[in-house]
Amino acid sequence: MDNKEIVFAYVDAMNRGDMERLRQLFSAEAEIIGVTGRGSFDYASGVWRQLHAALNMRLEVRSIVAEGDVVAVRFEETGVWTQPFRDFDAPTGRSFRLDAIEWFEIAEGKILRRWGVRDGGSLAAQVGFPARQPT
Q: Structural domains in the chain?
């Protein structure tokens, strides 16, 4: 597989919630950086499971570019909040749509690093996450 095909395989597995396939696509030393923090595949897959169970997340590639070992993707991310998610326990059933960008570094046919950025504020407003009170 070339680097773009690896990322398309990632998108397919992510949309199906197939954590075993995702694990196969990532290097054992992978570092995954996103809105909730950074860590290994095991850390990220826990968050991804929650995204699927609670927000029914789906990614659609809007544009993709690759140069050398780097692939950058702009996604349209959609979903519906149907189950408790992290500290938010009152699902509204409301849907969301936002732009997301992910940057992949590929080494030896595996994803070595993945950075993800999303507009979390837009997501919160669209699905109706309650405002947090300062502590």
A: 3-127 (3.10.450.50)
Strand partners for 61 = 75
d(CA 71, CA 68): 8
- Of 102, 50, 104, 52, which is closest to residue 78 (Cα–Cα)? 52
Between CA 130 and CA 1 the distance in angstroms is: 43
H-helix or E-strand spanning residue 4: helix 3-16
Radius of gyration of the chain (CA): 15
pTM surpassing 0.85? yes
Residues 19-78: tens digit of each pLDDT: 999 999 999 999 999 988 899 999 999 999 999 999 999 999 999 999 999 999 999 999
Beta-sheet pairing, 26-34 with 95-107: unpaired
Q: Please, what is the end-to-end C-alpha distance for the chain in angstroms?
A: 49
